[in-house]
Amino acid sequence: MTDSDKLPLAVFDLDNTLADTAHRQRFLERSLRDWDGFFAAAPEDPPIPEGVALVLKSAEECEIVYLTGRPERCRRDTLDWLAAQGLPEGRVHMRRNDDRRPARRTKLEILKRLARTREIRILVDDDELVCEDARRAGFTVVRASWTAPSATLEVAQEREGRT
Question: Exposure of 68 by Cβ count < 10 A (0-12 exposed, 13-18 middle, 19+ buried)?
Answer without folding.
Answer: buried
